[in-house]
Amino acid sequence: MFVWFFSLLVVMINFFLVFIFFCIFVLLGVFDSSWGGGLFFFDSLNFVFLSFMSVFVLGFIIFFECVNSLIFYSSLVVLFSVLFFFSGNMLLLYIFYELTMIPILFCLLGFGRQVEKIGACYYLIFYTLFFGFPYLFIYSSMMFFFNFIYYNFFMSYEFVLLLSLCFLVKFPVYFFHFWLPKAHVEAPTSTSMVLAGVMLKLGGGGVYRVSKSLSFFGLEFWVFISLVSMVFCSFICVMQSDGKSLAAYSSICHMGFVLLSEVIMVYYGKSMALIMMLAHGYTSVMMFYFIGEFYHIAGTRLIYYLRGYFSVSLLSCLFFCLVMMSNFSFPSSISFFSEYVVFNFGSSVFFFCVLFLFFYYLVSFYYSIYVLVSFMVGYKVSYVFEGNFLICLPVVLMMYNFFWFVFVI
């Protein structure tokens, strides 16, 4: 195990070798290999796929990012995230969960351009640590807590609630989400991509770990929270003028749907939650990438000024159109099939879900089409080199890639 970490430190000076190292590491998980003396364990293909997505996002960042420091901090976040997914005990799970916050703080404080970045760091620190303390208290009160990677035994509802709060902050769901828009607005483009594509999946992986202890008790509360998160944040997206803030609240909407899939306790629920997280990871990464590129071109993130690109760059318009189609779950995207399955099963268990999901789909379709039309129609803007957007092709293909269903369904 220490040989692997030493090798990682040696090749850290070459980020391409770091990417190759992560690819080999995830490949071991695909082949169902286990190593590390019980500290790291490939126990589920769900975490292998999430690790693969994290490594894929890192490769995309290495390819387009010019600042080596941002690539280094992004590599650290991906390293801690992969170790989080493959942690063999719950203490290491918590350690790597909290360690991902440190590189993000360096990126915010070191590369943020406004003084509001200090407030965003305060929000990130206090939300993460305040809701993480109950997690440590519970584990210090339990025996053999070093050995459990799953909670397949019954606990009281209060214990499950306190354990879930630690991970729901990184989901995030409504009422725990205030740090995310502030961090996204102040962060550089690559940091926003890591936040949306990697860090938000830590909450999903943590809820995977503790969801076995729910035992069908109190599910109505979690279902209601997820539905409220989806609908409220959809209406908030309509009122946003900043493109980054809109993409951040759109991430909260989609992760609310992921929470609904994980706690609905029906057939295919956990699998469709994985597909949603993969679709959201690639889609949100591309949204923040396009918004960051347009900010470098136009000098603003206001949606009103992101216009006229249809007459300038047809290739960028095509890719951006595919990204927004995936954002509102257009048919042929993998997010559409996962949300369709959860909609069918969820409406059969809780009939009131239909009303919430109707408003969610209606409003999310509206703001996605509004952003798309505002981007394409209008006066001409400065020239855009289409070759910059050719690197988006692999990520766009992953949003419409049905390869995942072969392993999940």
From TrEMBL:
Q: Which GO terms describe its molecular function?
A: NADH dehydrogenase (ubiquinone) activity; NADH dehydrogenase activity; ubiquinone binding
* UniProt entry keywords in alphabetical sequence: Electron transport, Membrane, Mitochondrion, NAD, Respiratory chain, Translocase, Transmembrane, Transmembrane helix, Transport, Ubiquinone
Question: What residues does the NADH:quinone oxidoreductase/Mrp antiporter transmembrane domain cover?
Answer: 87-357
Q: Where in the cell is it found?
A: Mitochondrion membrane
Annotated Gene Ontology cellular component terms: mitochondrial membrane
List all membrane-crossing ranges.
7-31, 37-63, 70-88, 94-112, 124-153, 159-180, 192-210, 216-239, 246-268, 274-292, 304-329, 349-377, 389-407
Instruction: Extract the signal peptide range.
Output: none
Pfam families listed in its UniProt record:
Proton_antipo_M
Q: Name one GO biological process term.
A: electron transport coupled proton transport
Q: Which reaction does it catalyse?
A: a ubiquinone + NADH + 5 H(+)(in) = a ubiquinol + NAD(+) + 4 H(+)(out)
Q: Which residues form a coiled coil?
A: none
Q: How does it sit in the membrane?
A: Multi-pass membrane protein
Question: What Enzyme Commission number(s) does the record list for this chain?
Answer: 7.1.1.2
**Its biological function?**
Core subunit of the mitochondrial membrane respiratory chain NADH dehydrogenase (Complex I) which catalyzes electron transfer from NADH through the respiratory chain, using ubiquinone as an electron acceptor. Essential for the catalytic activity and assembly of complex I. Core subunit of the mitochondrial membrane respiratory chain NADH dehydrogenase (Complex I) that is believed to belong to the minimal assembly required for catalysis. Complex I functions in the transfer of electrons from NADH to the respiratory chain. The immediate electron acceptor for the enzyme is believed to be ubiquinone.
| Family statement drawn from the similarity comment of this UniProt entry | Belongs to the complex I subunit 4 family.
Name of the protein: NADH-ubiquinone oxidoreductase chain 4
Tell me which species this is from. Answer: Spirocerca lupi
